[in-house]
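Q: Here's a chain of 116 amino acids. Please give me its 3D structure as tokens.
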Amino acid sequence: MTPPIFTALALSLGLTLVLELTFALLSGVRGRPLLLVALVNLLTNPAVVFFYFLLSQRSALPRMAVQLPLEGAAILTEALCYARCGGRDFLHPWRFSLLANLFSYGTGRLLLSIFG
């Protein structure tokens, strides 16, 4: 049987990649910058899910008190990557990172409320 953390990691990463790549396409991102979006999410999503799983299991903190700083760190890391590596493809890397993550997080929460 697969441990719950591996299931959570796989589902979250798969959904995040689909949602953030969709957001990027809807935002006009094409070509190599799409690869950057995928790679940045491969970097941040497993770390956020792992630390969320670890901290929510081992502390008495409310879920949002664990989630918000982790999501903030992901937005910051992704924006820095877009600014540093995205060149002219990401004219507003901070805004792109914030909106992509809000889209992904919000859609994920909506899907969880419907199917979870």
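Q: Can you summarize the key feature?
A: Residues 32-58 form the longest helix (27 residues).
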